[in-house]
Amino acid sequence: MQEILLLNTDRTDVSSKRQIIEAKLSELRDNFKRFNELLTDIFKTIEIIHQTFNEMYQLKKNIQAKRSSSAHTIDMNNTYVLKVALLVILNDGSIPVNSGPIQTSNFGYRFAMIVTSGIHEHSKTPSMHVSWVICRGEFDPVLTWPFPYPIKISLMDLSGEQKHISHLINPDSNPQSSIFQSPKNTTNLPYEIPQFCTMDKLVRDNSKFVRDGNIFIELQVDFNEK
After folding, report:
1. How far is CA 11 from CA 6, 18, 149, 192, in A?
2. C-alpha span between 143 and 107 (Å, rounded)
3. How many CB atoms within 10 Å of residue 82?
4. Which one has a higher pLDDT value, 100 or 91?
5. Sheet strand arrangement including 79-85
6. Long-range contacts of 173-181 (CB under 8 A, 24+ apart)
7. What is the span of the domain harbouring residue 102?
8. Is 162 left (phi over 0), alpha (psi -120 to 50) or beta?
9. Kind plus residue range of the DSSP H or E element containing 58
10. pLDDT grade for 68, boundaries at 50, 70 and 90
11. What does pTM read for this prediction?
């Protein structure tokens, strides 16, 4: 009788242990299933991140291409001409007329001209102001710095007499100025010509600097100086 009781006890223990083992196996299967699901989610997330990075890279390339295509390039005479409606600087001189980026070549320097009008600080005379500013470009690391070339900016005489009003920007006069260094930001500080010309030369009747309500400002780079 005692042997039968022991046998029944052993069977009960075996059954109990089997249930415990089966429960643990079931738990392991559930954990393994959840692990596989988690791993699948991780791979999907990695794929999404990879796709997002590819899209961002393509977007960056498109933006760079757009910037490059939107930049003006100086012509074979190393000049660029900005057309400005006189009424714009007369009516609201506080809003600058910006040329947008001008490049010396597809792989060259970038800069811009800015035209405004206002009362000159010292002479108290209404004047047209012109600024020239170096812009950051893609190929700045392979260019020579500080910017070495003289820039001549001229308000063009349209009468045929060629008596332009010109100002020369000569980097050699102050080569250490931050104006001529490789830009660390989007643009450097501008080189300002605060009284490029007085406004009376533009608003007088039959002004030789105005044609059909527009003035023309020429920028010329002198590459022969270096």
Report:
1. 9, 10, 100, 100
2. 9
3. 21
4. 100
5. 79-85, 214-221, 151-155, 165-169
6. 175/146, 175/148, 176/146, 177/146, 179/133, 179/134, 180/134, 180/145, 180/146, 180/147, 181/145, 181/146, 181/147
7. 72-225
8. left
9. helix 2-70
10. very low
11. 0.67
Are 208 and 123 part of one and the same domain?
yes
- ω into residue 146 within 30 of 0, thus cis? yes
User: 91 is written with which tokens?
Assistant: 């009516």
Closest CA to 86 of 211, 1, 220, 194: 211
Cα dihedral across residues 89, 93, 95, 100: positive or negative: positive
Q: Which residues pair with 115 in a beta bridge?
A: 97, 130
The pLDDT tens digits of the residues spanning 165-193 come to 999 999 998 888 999 999 999 999 999 99
Residue 36 phi, psi dihedral angles, 5° rounding: -60, -40
Statement to judge: residues 177 and 99 lie in one domain: yes
| Nearest CA among 116, 45, 59 for reference residue 86 | 116
Domain CATH for 193: 2.60.210.10
Domain boundary (30, 49, 70) is at 70
- Let me know whether 114 and 169 are in one domain: yes
* Same domain as 116, residue 63: no
Distance, CA of 135 to CA of 51 (rounded, Å): 32
Report the domain count for the chain: 2
Q: Give per-residue pLDDT as tens, 128-156.
A: 999 999 999 999 999 999 999 999 999 99
63 in the same domain as 34: yes
Using the 3D structure, point to which of 70, 87, 103 is the last residue of a domain. 70
